[in-house]
């Protein structure tokens, strides 16, 4: 393996060895504390523009599986691990993590003191820009400093064209902001007839399909950079059909209903925080990954109420509309990877659609 | 901590150690009773294990009751102390059986005693596998299929449905050995025929075989309000068919997909909820990696080696939290203190390191036991290694097992013929890892080996890396880059020195020259997300160092490591009791140990813990970091002691007498021991002990002891004088015994030896005084023999007390095993004449 470096905008250099594609990339560096599901994490589009540091040191200990991709073309900017366990390497037929990243043009770096990187990111208290480079020279740092990360991430990862995922049950429109396949998987399990629309779809375009419900998908980046028309779409849709919003979708749902969303000082990516469901007082765990949170002071309690909170950082993890059949969660109820304890939310969404239909 | 409504708890202790459990239950008990104390709960601890640390935890246990672990004794204690609750989860399965007897006698109901941890119905299910499997079936938990048939045709049909191999068993068998594994139709016919003929009901069971599947262990936790969390999942390297305790085990799992993990998690939660368990629950699964199907094979809602391994490898304080759950607190109300983040008890542990646990065997002491591994546990103890990669964790774990016989090393495998090797691959034996390495050396491929052994190919990839690394080291003597790589993978200086045909000192010097130094990383349960501190560390060749010098003055103690036959956990007892005294004397204590079950690793006992193999290089480096005033090393660590003697130490080295002197054993004669504290000037008597006659063999054995010895008056004074002067001839202060053999009416002195640790533990409980504490006072020069003698004089007469060692002969299927001191796995003690107070 060749030498490769993880460099930070503050001048810090971590030396390691390269794997995956020999590409030079720039991105915000975030860490993920999950101990399972490296493939699902790498293929989650929320990591567009981000370099992910795995705190679990041994990554790639089983080979890439054909049926657990969360997207077909991942756009994560880099994978940082302590020990690359390149399972499957002995057979040319098998897809290894190294081969996969090479095909996807994603660089990886191993033999990094990932715990030290996690500490650095935790203590920085703000997002840090970094780059994976072959030589950590002035040129590399100049480029890093000069790079302005795009805020048009959703446009990069969302589908430009509608496509169907047919089923025989309820008709659901999924508005794609950087969809995670887990949502489609959960809807398929429930026999839904799904149409995925670009995030630019208008309320008219959505309602023309006469859906029983609408899902706003998760996606990467800052919800405040999404154009105003998307918020208008949400404002209309929630009055017409049941709405379920996840991740970035949840943030947009909150903004569309008057809340403001702010950046987390340290992004939380993992699956071990206790989340309290307020109505039942139950504690559940779920896959979480996000850089933004809703400012609780800006939630209009006459319109919305809070359904879930993270007990560690007190962040709002779920909202529900008081007047419309619309609700949202910050975490990923589809798991993949992560606990299944909140996948009942999809059933709740189905019930909501059925009730709506019965009233028709 | 908030107050609770429970006023007092009867804790059922674990009794003598055996193959199934070691010091982990004592460690859990210690933490639980200490937490109860802080919650204002009184505890009554019933146990008869002379090596128990908890029985001497006087600041926490209100009534330490030494007596036989039977229902009569427990009823006696219940009548006397009127406990409000009873805790069966730290006493192994036996405590559940006792609890059920108490329930059946109506005692628990009559006294309105609360059961902690498990409701009544669950106690019965833990004791009765048939009841449990009925419950699991009702809740659709995946279980292996078992069908009852009464003829060959039906058996064939069922076997074809299940797929071979299947297990055929008689229903209501006339004899015991009627379990047959059947691989094809031909074998089926004869098995069904013979099992039918053996069955009183003329029926046989056709049972799905899970052999060869992955064995996965899940530790979950639930509070009284129903909140559940997963603490860890552990993957056993060896498949079903080899007892989980004998397998190499990894936390976290190395080869599992997320969906497999989540499905088993869901099932473990469902079972725990159904059985209304409060506290921890250990669920074991068999996982078929080909189709993701899994089966529940065991459910244990009590403390065991898994709980201690998980606690030590994650940094999550399981026993402390469990105690609060038993006291009725909810997980969300538990505050783990300033070293943890708010609500840390509710954060599922996540790891940024890998822990590998390996078994420790007793075959050196009991060579006649079969080394073949199977569904019955054979290992007597366990050690673990923590590293940043699978290989590093494994190398460190192996290094921690330094007392292994030589044929467990790599070199010994070279002598195997190819046929012998194949036999060992197919019929695995203890020390299997080295056989696997040798097989790869001889050109077996990963897939081939995976097929033969049912071990996931990932592990062969790792073994192959280990092998290639060793080869690279061999081929490049003295090369710095190779040295760095080897150290990064956890290879010890000893191993590198062996491969380079040089001395560990030379390697150490080379590391210094190249400024290659290990760093220390903290084991805390958030993988760096939070600023949390557990004061548990492991080393790694990394950038960032989290280790700092402990506050002074400090004492560094090398623990006694994995449980070994002979000492049982008396070594661990000694260390744990000793550090309590060091603490009282104002020392900050630093423990180096790799036995996850060790009481010495209980977090409240010491200021800092290093989970590192006690190799000379590690100890030298730790001495540099910690700069302690005192260093304690068990005498059996000869390699380490030799290395320490070659350098100028800046601290005082104190050797713990953990090696026994076998020349005083194996003597089937009446022996009398006069026991003493020697402070350098005077010998203060601790009373006498004598060996007992074995009821079966009618010979005297040093593994059964009585306090005091019955020495006739005419003989007592002369031999007592002789003994004390022999003790006063010793060079160093310490705890000693002088042994006499009785021949006719004469007593002849046989020798003087340091008081064996097993007897230190026993006498401490007999005399109600911490002899390890006195040992510390002696070596730190604070001893006041006179005060000790005074307090002994004031103490009540304990009456006659017996100590009987127990042996693992039955568990290891050794017939006619001869009990000797080096084979002791546990012990029981009993006060024959009840003293007026034994608390």
UniProtKB/TrEMBL annotation, chain A:
Q: Would I find Zinc among this entry's keywords?
A: no
Catalyses which reaction(s): hydrogencarbonate + L-glutamine + 2 ATP + H2O = carbamoyl phosphate + L-glutamate + 2 ADP + phosphate + 2 H(+); L-glutamine + H2O = L-glutamate + NH4(+)
Q: Where does this protein act, in terms of pathway?
A: Amino-acid biosynthesis; L-arginine biosynthesis; carbamoyl phosphate from bicarbonate: step 1/1; Pyrimidine metabolism; UMP biosynthesis via de novo pathway; (S)-dihydroorotate from bicarbonate: step 1/3
InterPro entries the record matches:
Anth_synth/Amidotransfase, CarbamoylP_synth_ssu, CarbamoylP_synth_ssu_N, CarbP_synth_ssu_N_sf, Class_I_gatase-like, CPSase_GATase1, GATASE
Show the segment(s) annotated as CPSase: 1-170
Domain Carbamoyl-phosphate synthase small subunit N-terminal, residue spans: 2-133
Keyword line: Amino-acid biosynthesis, Arginine biosynthesis, ATP-binding, Glutamine amidotransferase, Ligase, Nucleotide-binding, Pyrimidine biosynthesis
Gene3D superfamilies attached to this UniProt entry: 3.40.50.880, Carbamoyl-phosphate synthase small subunit, N-terminal domain (3.50.30.20)
**GO MF term (any one):** ATP binding
Name a Pfam family for this protein. Answer: GATase
Q: Name the Enzyme Commission number(s) assigned to this protein.
A: 6.3.5.5
- Family membership, please give it: Belongs to the CarA family.
Subunit structure of this entry? Composed of two chains; the small (or glutamine) chain promotes the hydrolysis of glutamine to ammonia, which is used by the large (or ammonia) chain to synthesize carbamoyl phosphate. Tetramer of heterodimers (alpha,beta)4.
Q: What is this protein called?
A: Carbamoyl phosphate synthase small chain
According to its UniProt entry, this protein's organism is Limosilactobacillus pontis DSM 8475
């Amino acid at each position: 393996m060749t030498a490769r470096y993880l460099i930070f905008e503050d001048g810090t250099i971590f030396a390691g060895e390269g794997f995956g594609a020999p590409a030079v990339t720039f991105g915000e560096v975030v860490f993920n504390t999950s101990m399972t599901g490296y493939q699902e994490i790498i293929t989650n589009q929320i990591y567009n523009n981000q370099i992910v540091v795995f705190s679990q040191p041994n990554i790639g200990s089983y080979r890439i599986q054909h049926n657990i991709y969360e997207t077909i073309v991942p756009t994560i900017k880099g994978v940082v691990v302590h020990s690359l366990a390149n399972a499957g390497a002995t057979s040319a037929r098998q897809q290894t993590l190294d081969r996969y990243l090479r095909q996807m043009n994603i660089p990886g770096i191993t033999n990094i003191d990932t715990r030290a990187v996690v500490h650095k990111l935790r203590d920085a208290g703000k997002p840090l820009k970094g780059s994976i480079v072959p030589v950590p020279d002035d040129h590399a740092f100049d480029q890093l400093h000069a790079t302005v990360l795009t805020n048009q991430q959703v446009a990069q990862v969302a589908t430009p064209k509608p496509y169907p995922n047919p089923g025989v049950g309820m008709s659901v429109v999924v508005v794609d902001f950087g969809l995670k396949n887990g949502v489609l998987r959960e809807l398929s399990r429930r026999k839904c007839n799904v149409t995925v629309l670009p995030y630019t779809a208008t309320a008219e375009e959505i309602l023309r399909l006469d859906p029983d419900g609408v899902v706003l998908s998760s996606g990467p980046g800052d919800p405040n950079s999404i154009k105003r028309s998307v918020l208008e779409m949400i404002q209309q849709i929630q009055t017409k059909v049941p709405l379920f919003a996840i991740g970035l979708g949840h943030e947009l749902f909150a903004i569309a209903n008057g809340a403001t969303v702010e950046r987390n000082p340290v992004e939380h990516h993992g699956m071990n925080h206790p989340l309290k469901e307020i109505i039942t007082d139950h504690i559940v765990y779920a896959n979480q990954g996000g850089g933004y949170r809703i400012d609780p002071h800006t939630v209009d309690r006459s319109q919305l109420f809070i359904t879930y909170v993270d007990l560690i950082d007190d962040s709002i993890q779920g909202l529900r509309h008081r007047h419309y059949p619309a609700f949202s969660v910050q975490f990923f109820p589809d798991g993949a990877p992560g606990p299944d304890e909140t996948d009942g939310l999809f059933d709740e969404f189905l019930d909501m659609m059925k009730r709506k239909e019965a009233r028709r | 901590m908030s107050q609770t409504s429970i006023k007092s708890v009867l804790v059922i202790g674990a009794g003598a150690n055996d193959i199934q459990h070691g010091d982990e239950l004592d460690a859990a008990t210690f933490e639980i009773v200490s937490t109860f104390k802080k919650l204002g709960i009184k505890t009554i601890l019933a146990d008869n294990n002379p090596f128990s640390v908890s029985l001497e935890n006087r600041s926490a246990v209100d009534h330490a009751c030494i007596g036989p672990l039977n229902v009569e004794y427990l009823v006696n204690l219940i009548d006397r102390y009127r406990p409000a609750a009873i805790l069966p989860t730290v006493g192994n399965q036996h405590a559940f059986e006792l609890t059920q007897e108490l329930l059946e006698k109506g005692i628990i109901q009559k006294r309105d005693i609360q059961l902690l941890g498990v409701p009544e119905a669950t106690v019965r299910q833990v004791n009765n596998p048939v009841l449990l499997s009925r419950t699991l079936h009702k809740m659709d938990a995946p279980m292996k299929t078992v069908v009852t048939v009464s003829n060959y045709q039906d058996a064939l049909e069922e076997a074809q449905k299940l797929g071979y191999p299947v297990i055929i068993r008689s229903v209501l068998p006339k004899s015991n050995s009627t379990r047959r594994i059947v691989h094809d139709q031909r074998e089926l016919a004869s098995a069904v025929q013979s099992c039918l003929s053996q069955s009183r009901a003329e029926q046989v069971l056709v049972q799905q075989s899970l052999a060869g599947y992955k064995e996965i262990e899940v530790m979950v936790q639930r509070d009284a309000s129903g909140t559940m969390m997963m603490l860890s999942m552990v993957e056993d390297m060896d498949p079903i068919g080899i007892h989980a305790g004998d397998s190499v085990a990894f936390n976290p799992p190395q080869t599992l997909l997320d969906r497999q993990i989540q499905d088993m998690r869901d099932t473990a939660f469902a079972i725990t909820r159904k059985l209304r368990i409060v506290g921890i629950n250990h669920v074991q699964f068999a996982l078929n990696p080909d189709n993701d199907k899994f089966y529940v094979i065991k459910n244990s809602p009590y403390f065991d080696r898994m709980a201690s391994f998980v606690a030590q490898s994650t940094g999550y304080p399981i026993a402390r939290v469990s105690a609060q759950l038993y006291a009725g607190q909810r997980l969300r109300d538990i505050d783990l203190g300033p070293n943890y983040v708010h609500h840390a008890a509710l954060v599922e542990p996540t790891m940024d390191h890998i822990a590998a646990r390996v078994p420790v065997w007793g075959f050196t002491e009991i060579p006649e036991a079969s080394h073949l591994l199977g569904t019955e546990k054979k290992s007597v103890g366990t050690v673990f290694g923590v590293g940043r990669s699978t290989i590093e964790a494994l190398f460190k774990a192996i290094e921690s097992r330094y007392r292994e016989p030589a044929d467990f090393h790599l070199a010994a495998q070279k002598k195997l013929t190819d046929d012998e090797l194949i036999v060992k691959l197919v019929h695995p034996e203890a020390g299997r890892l080295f056989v696997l390495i040798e097989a790869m050396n001889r050109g077996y491929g990963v897939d081939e080996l995976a097929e033969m052994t049912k071990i996931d190919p990932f592990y062969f990839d790792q073994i192959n890396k280990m092998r290639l690394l060793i080869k690279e080291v061999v081929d490049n003597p003295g090369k710095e880059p190779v040295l760095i790589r080897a150290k990064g993978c956890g290879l010890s200086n000893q191993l590198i020195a062996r491969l380079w045909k040089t001395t560990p000192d030379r390697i150490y010097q080379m590391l210094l020259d190249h400024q290659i130094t290990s760093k220390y990383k903290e084991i805390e349960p958030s993988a760096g997300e939070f600023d949390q501190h557990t004061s548990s560390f492991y080393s790694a060749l990394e950038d960032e160092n989290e280790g700092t010098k402990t506050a002074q003055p400090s004492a560094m103690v090398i623990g006694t490591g994995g449980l070994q036959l002979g000492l049982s956990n008396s070594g661990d007892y000694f260390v744990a009791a000793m550090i309590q005294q060091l603490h009282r004397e104002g020392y900050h204590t630093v423990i180096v140990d790799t036995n996850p079950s060790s009481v010495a690793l209980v977090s409240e006992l010491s200021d800092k813990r290093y989970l590192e193999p006690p190799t000379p290089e590690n100890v030298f480096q730790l001495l540099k970091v910690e700069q302690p005033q005192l260093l304690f090393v068990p005498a059996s660590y000869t390699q380490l002691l030799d290395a320490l003697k070659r350098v100028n130490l800046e601290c005082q080295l104190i050797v713990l007498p953990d090696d026994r002197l076998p020349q005083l054993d194996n003597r089937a004669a009446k022996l009398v021991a006069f026991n003493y504290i020697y402070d350098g000037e005077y010998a203060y008597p601790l009373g006498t002990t004598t060996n007992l006659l074995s009821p079966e063999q009618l010979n005297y054995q040093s593994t059964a002891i009585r306090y005091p010895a019955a020495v006739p008056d005419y003989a007592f004074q002369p031999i007592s004088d002789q003994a004390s002067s022999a003790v006063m001839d010793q060079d160093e202060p310490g705890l000693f015994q002088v042994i006499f053999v009785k021949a006719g009416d004469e007593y002849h002195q046989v020798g003087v030896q340091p008081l064996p640790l097993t007897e230190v533990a026993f006498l401490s409980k007999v005399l109600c005084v911490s002899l390890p504490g006195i040992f510390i006072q002696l070596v730190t020069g604070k001893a006041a023999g006179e005060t000790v003698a005074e307090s002994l004089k004031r103490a009540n007469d304990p009456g006659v007390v017996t100590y009987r060692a127990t042996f693992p002969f039955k568990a290891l299927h050794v017939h006619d095993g001869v009990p000797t001191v080096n084979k002791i796995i546990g012990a029981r003690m009993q006060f024959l004449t009840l003293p007026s107070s034994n608390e």
